[in-house]
Amino acid sequence: TLGVMAPVWGILSDRFSRKAMILRATGAGVLTMILMSLATDIWFVFMVRTVQGAFTGTVTAAAALVAAGTPNKRLPYAIGLITSSTFIGNTLGPFIGGYAAEWFGYRMSFFLGSGILLAGFLLVLFAVKDIPPHAADTDDAEGMAANGPLHRKSMVFFILINLLLLFIIRFASDLTREFLAVLVQGFLGTVTGAASYSGNLLGVIGLFSAIVSVLFGRLGEKHNKILISIIMIAVGALCNFLIFSFSGLLVFTILYPIARILVTSVNPLVMAMITAVTPGHRRGFLFGVQTAVTSAAWAIAPLVATAVSINISNEALLLATAVTLVLSLPVALLAGFWARQHREKTGIIL
Questions:
Q1: Could you give the CA distance from residue 75 to residue 89 in angstroms, rounded to a whole number?
Q2: Cα(208)–Cα(231) distance, integer angstroms
Q3: Which of 26, 247, 288, 301 could form an SS bridge with 174, CB 3.0 to 4.6 Å?
Q4: Which letter, b or e, does each residue of 197-218 get, where b requires 16 or more Cβ atoms within 10 Å of its Cβ?
Q5: For the range 297-301, what are the long-range contacts, defined as Cβ-Cβ under 8 Å and sequence gap of 24 or more?
């Protein structure tokens, strides 16, 4: 439901108000978290989660607001910062929620989550300034139009190629997501300690991903973002292949976080490129489509991973990840070649 509704909310944010969309998403989050704490059976949870996916989407709404008011040359850093804050939340949330559930029960952890979202709702309501839809067309966008009018077909093709790249990358990075504890258990040779070890790995990945997203955002302001992305994807593929080839806990512990951190850090660089060629008053829709694309990959990857795990082995997921990342390289190269060939017509900033 998140993937289906995200483009709709994106269109509404472009037409009416981006701040209103953030308030809608956080407000819906508050209500659904409270309802989750009151759940009495699995079907009630299922219905609430369905509603939650349809009416939330805080990160997408916030990214659209930030992108609308950011000059194109600063987009890699701005989107990297948004990504970094998401990683921090994804790291601290399970950590705090786990202790809250253990000490006070699962229902109280949902109440705690709703309280945090309520604080975010109030912060946006009183401290965030909205950007009128058509005021979102930055000076950079006007400059591109003056120096070389955007050719719609060229722009759309470039965006579609990069959305395909994001889909493949998200699919690859999510192939091992649900099987991390199982992989760790296999390397440990025992169930004991596998869960805590996996949790620690995820904590490290989340922390360093937050740092790396900002650093590569800065790097992307000065250097070729496609080239940086290709290098990170290639290194991520190599790490997964080495883990598969030299099975061992030490190799896994060192290389798996490196691969995940590098691959997930590609997203803000790619989004910065396609956001820069999108008019400011259409960027909400762009981020909605991006959410739909990555949500589709997020939903499909576990299904494919399950089939690979059952029919081949858990370790084969690492090889599948490496192969998928390698397959994304021609897509990235095509995006870079197209952008270089059509730079004067489209104003694409590499």
A1: 21
A2: 18
A3: 301
A4: bbbebbebbbbbbbebbbebbe
A5: 297/166, 297/167, 297/168, 297/170, 297/171, 297/174, 298/170, 298/174, 299/3, 300/171, 301/170, 301/171, 301/172, 301/174, 301/175, 301/177
Q: How many CB atoms lie within 10 A of CB 9?
A: 25
Torsion of CA 261, 324, 59, 180, to 10 degrees: -60
Domains of the chain: 2-346 (1.20.1250.20)
Question: 343 vs 170, which has greater pLDDT?
Answer: 170
Confidence band for 347, pLDDT divided at 50, 70 and 90: low
- Report CA-CA distances (Å) from 261 to 66, 184, 236, 309: 23, 18, 8, 23
Residue pair 65/10 in contact by the 8 Å Cβ criterion: no
CB atoms within 10 A of CB 282: 16
Lowest mean pLDDT among 47-61, 168-182, 184-198, 300-314: 184-198
